[in-house]
Specification:
Belongs to the DedA family. This is Membrane protein DedA, SNARE-associated domain. Keywords: Membrane, Transmembrane, Transmembrane helix. It comes from Parageobacillus thermantarcticus. About 75% of the residues lie in helices and about 0% in strands. It has one domain. The chain is mainly alpha-helical.
Length: about 200
């Protein structure tokens, strides 16, 4: 299975911008790996930095829209039954649904930077019939800095791009902390508004 994934990855990334977008859409390989490799291609001047960010943003957003529409049209029963084939664990779905129901649509942005929740947060947004325009806006706003960050690191690492997990970890901690802080502030504002009503 691992070898099959590697072969799919190698085939896709050889397609340039389209391959980067497709690799992010199918989500077999973590986005960090795909974007870091895109950065490596930038370092070799095979693609441009701006083009890689655009491809990463398009691919990442469409991948989340797939999950959103699954939640919108399939609902929770569908995802409980078939989510495992999409590598979506029930506990991740439970936590994401709890976050969305408790904290509202604004969490779509901040949750993108928080491990565990970020992979499945699109699904409860679909189940709750959140406006797809608002969902797309929040998602795109979160995916742009995520793409820039990993493409930049991949470009700096060059041929050592596969070390992205180890290199990115110290940088991701403050990002995750900031996302949690922003989420807490957002929650506090929501609670304050509810009390005033």
């Amino acid at each position: 299975m691992h070898e099959l994934v590697q072969n799919i990855f190698a085939f896709l990334v050889d397609l340039g911008y389209i391959g980067i977008a497709l690799a992010l859409m199918i989500e077999i390989i973590p986005s960090e790996i795909v974007l870091a490799y895109a950065g490596y291609l930038v370092s070799r001047e095979e693609i441009s930095f701006v083009g890689a960010v655009i491809a990463g943003t398009i691919g990442g957003t469409i991948a989340q829209l797939f999950l959103y529409w699954m939640g919108y049209y399939g609902g929770r029963p569908f995802l409980d039954k078939y989510g495992k084939y999409l590598l979506i664990k029930k506990k991740h779905l439970d936590l994401s649904e709890q976050w969305f129901n408790k904290y509202g649509p604004g969490v779509i942005f901040t949750a993108r930077f928080i491990p565990v929740v970020r992979h499945a947060i699109s699904i409860p947004a679909g189940i709750a019939k959140m406006s797809w325009k608002k969902f797309t806006f929040y998602t795109t706003c979160a995916i742009i800095p995520w793409s820039i960050f990993f493409i930049f690191l991949g470009e700096r690492l060059g041929s050592h791009w596969q070390e992205i997990d180890e290199i990115a970890r110290p940088y991701l901690r403050p990002v995750i902390i900031a996302a949690v802080v922003v989420t807490v502030i957002y929650i506090a504002v929501q609670i304050y508004r509810r009390k005033r009503r």
